[in-house]
Every structure is written in C-alpha cells, then in structure tokens.
Amino acid sequence: MREFIYFSKKARTSGAFKELMSAGRLDIACHVIIMTFFVSNAIRKNVKLHLFFYGPPDPPKHLEIMNPEIISKKDISGLIKRMLYKYKKNKKNEALPGCWIEKKSFQGFVEELSEQDRNIYLLDPKGEDIRKVEIDKNSVFIFGDHEGIPKQELRRIKNKVKKISIGNIAYFSSQVIAIVQNELDRRGID
Ligand SMILES: C[S@@+](CC[C@H](N)C(=O)[O-])C[C@H]1O[C@@H](n2cnc3c(N)ncnc32)[C@H](O)[C@@H]1O
Fold first, then answer.
1. Residue 159 has pLDDT above 90, yes or no
2. Whose Cα sits closest to atom 11 in ligand 1?
C-alpha cells in the first residue's frame, strides 16, 4: 500500500465553505485527491491519502482516504465537505466508506509512522534524486500545498524523514503526486 501525506497550513477545517479557492485553497486538495485515486478508466486501490488541514476554524484535522467506495471526479469538493461535517470530537470517524476524519497533528502522525519503522520521504527539490533512491512498498511520501510545509513543522519532523527530489522544477502538489505514483508504477511497487 503506497501512502501519501499532504499538508496545508490554511485549508479550512470545517465544512462550512462556499468557494474552494477562498477556503485555504481547497481546490489544490481536490486536485491532489484526483491525482491520488484516478487513472484513465480506473480507480487506484493501492493507495492511502492523508490530508492534514491546519486552517480555521478548528485545526488540525486529519482526513484519511483509502479505497473510497463512492468517489466522483465531479464532486471532490462535496467529499471534502461531507468529511469535514462528519468530524466527531475524540473519535476517528468513518465519514463515508473508506473516508475517515479525526483531530490529529501532522507531527504526531509522522512520529507514529516512524515508530512503525516506515520509510518516510519528504518531497523537496533539494533532496536526493528519487531515481537514485531505493523505495520499498511501505513507503510514505510527504508533500505540501502551494505554500509548502511551514519551517516549524519541518523542524519537528526533520529527524524522521529523508528528503527526495523529483527534479529542479517546482511542481504543483497534484503534479508531484502524479509523478511519484508514476515512478512507483514503473518500478512495480504497489
Ligand atoms: C507547489 S510546491 C510548493 C512550493 C513552495 N513555494 C515551497 O517553497 O515549498 C508543493 C509541494 O510539492 C513538493 N515539490 C514540488 N516540486 C518538487 C520537486 N521538484 N521535488 C520534490 N518535491 C517537490 C514539495 O513538497 C512542495 O511542498
């Protein structure tokens, strides 16, 4: 199972939003979800996506999506909205089949993964070339939104991650996930 972590400092943490771009750029989260799960004529079943939203009014929120039963490219914003509305205090709530929401910090989650001895890669143009890095099938990849991951958060996780690069160009978040998935596909890593 491949796993990706998307961090957004401003993405809204309640379902009460009207317009995606002014809701902390939830439009980017939508593109990321599409690139995580959709390929031409199929849905990827071998991937888990974690979205960490740190915007108002109630950060942080951890949205986890894996093998979603109902997902339509036409209504990804509706999916995010429903998940945020289904948040329940002190509980990891299955908002929809394959979609969970809870209050959890990005740092705490990375620490949990590290305790499980997972290989955690931070996508960074200054990192080691992904093509030279050995990747196993339980690897986790972290990337940020248009503003990147705040320095404070990076400091907290720096001893737990290895920086890897997909080249010198600063890609959109959704392009990053598409490129990494392609790399894994070509290596036959599920
Ligand atoms: C649009 S970029 C963010 C740019 C932002 N100004 C910054 O300095 O981080 C979105 C995310 O994609 C990842 N990323 C973009 N291009 C990359 C590259 N060439 N190699 C590795 N990661 C990349 C980084 O994780 C980044 O946080």
1. yes
2. 144
- Contact call for residues 121 and 165 (beta carbons, < 8 A): no
CA 42 to chain centre: 20
Domains in the chain with CATH codes: 1-190 (3.40.1280.10)
Distance from C-alpha of 102 to C-alpha of 76, rounded to nearest angstrom: 19
Q: Ligand 1 atom 6: the closest Cα is on which residue?
A: 147
Query: How would residue 90 be classed by pLDDT, with cut points 50, 70 and 90?
Result: very high
Is residue 165 lining ligand 1, measured as CB closer than 6 Å? yes
Quick one: pLDDT at residue 157?
98
Please say if the pLDDT value at position 132 is more than 90. Answer: yes
The Cα–Cα gap between 121 and 17 comes to 32
